[in-house]
């Protein structure tokens, strides 16, 4: 399948992404869930509005409702009743009359305009209007937010907090969504210790699974954490077999670079169709992708920055597609670099930066400092990638660079 690394040399980032997305078949299983449980879930059907929102013409202000023509020849109208939110005026407002009305209350029959109370003087039943109003002022029309029958949200949309509010305003409580994905996480490396364990000589704490878990929570998937697997052929085989049985996708980190214990590669090639790619990107050159019998496999590099950047730019888009979810477009901007940026031609750089505006209103970007692939704080304090094309060499301060805003996966 995804054989694109047979050619020597590095594969361009865009080609890697396209090849990988092309190899993914989205899930189709659907389940029905309650609206309150739907944050981050992916709609499996188009949602057509069963009603107008708002359902009736209503007032945008506390004040008085009337027919605008009533004020053409006079500035006083006679108070004929009240329309409160949830307790509408049931009669008809005649010419020369007005109705006391509250925000959100139904506009009475015969009325087409609302004046706010601050512009009125009440003297018993006689209401004086201090200003002229155009017809329709301060009126909210039935269906002006959502008209009955309109497709509000399309199949494939990931539901946000606001989407849930919109669906509630339509009276929709049961939703058809695609089932949740299960993702298995595996960390490989003899030097990795779980939090709480003492660090031996040369050990470090395993951290990739923590950051990856946080990123994956944005996709609302179920996560199975396999912890740390030692650099041992049989242990790796067992972990991959077990993970593949239980998950839709397996994400490992570490053990994909040249010089690593070759077990990972050997085991994966026995178990499935995995391609080991050298992608022309920095950070994150080594990356493995392919299919195990039951799941998709993503082999991230071990270095924390490389792992997170390849997860963000490659694995996350793939999982989003697997979820049957429409990807959101990324936001690219141009900004002036505040500092010199080291870069040698040959790979596309995703340096981490802080984008802001200077006092003249121009977009400026500053590097987060050392860009080493082990320096995770270079992502923690950043809000964007500074994207430098392959052929680009060093950047001088003051030059304009492409910036790609982080999406919410890192939050
Ligand atoms: P590897 O890709 O296995 O050669 O690992 C590259 C570097 O990343 C080494 O310094 C590893 O110690 C480190 N590393 C690998 N996996 C993890 C992990 N899960 N958490 C933190 N660091 C890791
Ligand atoms: Mg390793």
What report would you give on this structure?
It is a single chain. This protein is α/β, with parallel strands linked by helices and 411 residues long. The protein contains 7 helices and 26 strands. A hairpin with a 5-residue loop joins strand 23 (348-357) and strand 24 (363-367). Helix 1 packs parallel to helix 6 (304-322) and helix 3 (208-217) packs parallel to helix 6. The strands form 7 sheets. Strands 7-4-6-5-9-8 form a 6-stranded mixed sheet, with no helix packed on it. It has helices at 13-22, 161-169, 208-217, 233-246, 263-271, 304-322, 377-380, and strands spanning 30-34, 47-48, 58-59, 63-66, 76-83, 97-101, 113-116, 120-123, 126-129, 139-140, 151-153, 174-178, 182-188, 192-193, 204-205, 222-229, 249-253, 273-278, 281-282, 286-291, 296-300, 332-337, 348-357, 363-367, 384-388, 400-405. The chain has 4 domains: 11-26 and 182-322, 3-Layer(aba) Sandwich (Molybdenum Cofactor Biosythetic Enzyme, Chain A); 30-52 and 147-178, Molybdopterin biosynthesis moea protein, domain 2 (Alpha-Beta Complex), CATH 3.90.105.10; 58-140, Molybdopterin biosynthesis moea protein, domain 3 (Molybdopterin biosynthesis moeA protein, domain 3, Beta Complex); 332-410, MoeA, C-terminal, domain IV (Beta-clip, Beta Barrel). The longest helix has 19 residues, at 304-322. The structure holds adenosine monophosphate and magnesium ion. Residues 187, 189, 191-192, 204, 206-208, 253-255, 257, 260, 301-304 line the site of adenosine monophosphate.
